[in-house]
Amino acid sequence: MVTLVNVNIWNIPLEEFVYNELSFYCFPAWKQNEGSHVSDVTKWRRMAWISAIRRTDIHFADIPRSLKVCSRHFHSGKPAYEMDESHPDWAPTLHLGHSEVTATVSDRHARRQHRHHLRESEGGGQNEQNNVNEDERDGVQEDEENREQTETVKPAAKRLRAECQLCEQSSAELTRLLQENRELRSELNKLKMDEEFFKDNTEKVQYYTGLPCFAILLSTFTTVKPFLPVAKKLSQFQMVLLTLIRLRLDLPIQHLSHIFNVSRRTLSATFADTIDVLYARLTPLLYWPERHCLQATMPHQFLEAFGKRVAIIVDCFEIRTERPSNLMARTQSFSHNKGTHTIKYLIGITPPRPNVIYFKGRGGEGRGERASDKHITENCGLLNKLLPGDLVLADQGFDIKDSVGMMCAEVKIPAFTKRRCQLDAKDVEDTHAIAHLRIHVERVIGSLRNKYTLLHNTISISLLLPCKDEEFTLLDKLVNVCCILVNMCPSVVVRPDETEKCAC
User: Fold this and answer.
1) What residue spans carry the region label Disordered (predicted)?
2) pTM: predicted TM-score of the whole model, two decimal places
3) Beta-strand pair 22-26/67-70
């Protein structure tokens, strides 16, 4: 049997290792940088060693330097010079455990050395001729033996070459697949609707959510995250995102279900649940300011016209709805002014920052022609917020002078020429001042409807049903959330000392 010793356990990196009068030698290296002849000889020598030892776990391209052959397998006790191909110790030949490698190489080498000495000591034609004949016979025999050895080594070389080509092809294919995987993952991340999709991209945030920047979007999500339900197919950020996208763009449920890869039922339920959380957690942003704060920040336009008395500017807007199936509800919700069925809401803004919506009435307080501005104002709780001396700016439809007067407050509405030919100079001046300031609430309502187009289009009748165990409808909560989101945006009315920039 071939004696192979792994000397790496002794951590001695030597080409030759001596132990108990035995020497150990590394497998010959394939020298590819010293010319083609040296490369061929060293390659065949390495293959000859592998073929002689015949171990299935030894491969041409991967032989550890710690794997060594002992001196018992060489005639002289060590390998011959690598370029001396005729030397019997050019490859191991003794005690190999098989009979395929014969020992005739050593005899032939001995005869050749003997003839060489004879040539040097003797001269003469006959002896020289005999030596030549013997050389020719030995050469023929050597060629035959080399041919047999070559035929034994060639299948191993072919197998090794095939294995190398297969490894190269596998490595190239693996590299290609890894690169393709990285590219596909990068493309997927660009299209996936998550935090990375909006990060550092204000344009996307404004288009899909209506919010001014990613910092405000992330802050809103952080506020409501602990209260959001856990879904299997959607992350909590995606739950908030799909809700904002539907409010902002009014995309159909079917389209959103394809974008987020969920069913229509799952998306509808997620939308309703997220609206509930946004309504519950963000409602404190719609607040009635303290009177001293209101007066301390009163703009000069209001001070010049009415001093510090203006507390609120109110107006109503209507949202179109589908036609109810119930005849009574159909009659109550039809608006002759709009020519369709509507729900009416009351919006109020404060003078210091005209886009801050701090109060709204509910749509359920009345419908269509039956729901007058006066009726909604008197039943929504607004009058309870007024203090003596407060001034309310409103439109002509708000006939609430008596109701506001009971709170020791005053309402200012534009004058009209009912039963008169024309207005006098004082009425014209007051009407101009009221209209100049009251236009702010109309601009806020326009921003609200244009920014969140769900309120601009026709609302499904299913949104008008009261929520379970609540008096509010889902539409009431939608309007509330949209008002809060508008408050997070820059003012639609820019004062001379302000710039239209996001604070973040």
Assistant:
1) 104-154
2) 0.62
3) antiparallel
